[in-house]
Amino acid sequence: MGVSELNIHLFRKINDLGKEYTYLNPSFVIITEYMVIFLALSVVYFWFTRTENNRMMIISASFAFILAEIIGKTAGKFHSNLQPFAELSSVNQLIDKAINNSFPSDHTILFFSFCVSFMLFKKKASFLWILLAMLVGLSRIWVGVHYPFDVLVGALVGSISAVLSYILIQRVKLFNKLLEIYEKVEKNLLPVKEKSKDL
C-alpha cells in the first residue's frame, strides 16, 4: 500500500465514522470550528494574569506558531494536495471550506504549537492540553477537510516548533528584556490596584 493509498485508507476509516455515529457529528463540528475561540480566550487569560511564567509561555507559544507556520508553508511548496472532499467521492463533509492546498493542516499547527507550549510550561495540565490538540486534529479528518497525513505533519511541525521555541526562550535574554519594557508601559497605562490591608 503506497503512501497516498494509506492516507486515503486512514481518512476513510475516520471520516466514515461520522456516517455511522451521526450523533457525534455536532460535537466534532463544534471542536473544529469553535475551539479556536477557547484557545484565544485562554491566551488572553494567561497573559493578563500578569505572572512572568504565563507571559513567557504565551511569548514562547506565539513564536512557536510563527516558526511552525513558516515551516508548514515551506513544506506546502514541496508537496500539496487538495482537501479530501475535493478529491474523493462520498466524503462526509460537515463544514464549508474553500478548495486549496490542505497540506499541512494549519489548525493542527496552531493547536499543537500552543498546546505543547502550554504543556511545557504547565506540566500539571499537560494531558488536557495535548488531548485538546489531538481532538482538534481528529476533528479536521472527521469533518472531511483534511487527510490524516495533513494532520500528522501539522502536529509534528507544531510540536517540534514548540520545543525549539521553549529552549530558545529560556536561553535568549532579549525576550525577558522586551517583556520588562512592555510591563513598565503596561503598569503606567493599566496600573494594578493593590489590595488594602486590614489594620
UniProtKB/TrEMBL annotation:
<feature type="transmembrane region" description="Helical">
    <location>
        <begin position="21"/>
        <end position="48"/>
    </location>
</feature>
<dbReference type="InterPro" id="IPR000326">
    <property type="entry name" value="PAP2/HPO"/>
</dbReference>
<keyword id="KW-0812">Transmembrane</keyword>
<keyword id="KW-1133">Transmembrane helix</keyword>
<feature type="transmembrane region" description="Helical">
    <location>
        <begin position="151"/>
        <end position="169"/>
    </location>
</feature>
<feature type="transmembrane region" description="Helical">
    <location>
        <begin position="127"/>
        <end position="145"/>
    </location>
</feature>
<dbReference type="InterPro" id="IPR036938">
    <property type="entry name" value="PAP2/HPO_sf"/>
</dbReference>
<keyword id="KW-0472">Membrane</keyword>
<dbReference type="InterPro" id="IPR033879">
    <property type="entry name" value="UPP_Pase"/>
</dbReference>
<feature type="domain" description="Phosphatidic acid phosphatase type 2/haloperoxidase">
    <location>
        <begin position="57"/>
        <end position="166"/>
    </location>
</feature>
<keyword id="KW-0614">Plasmid</keyword>
<dbReference type="Pfam" id="PF01569">
    <property type="entry name" value="PAP2"/>
</dbReference>
<protein>
    <submittedName>
        <fullName>Undecaprenyl-diphosphatase</fullName>
    </submittedName>
</protein>
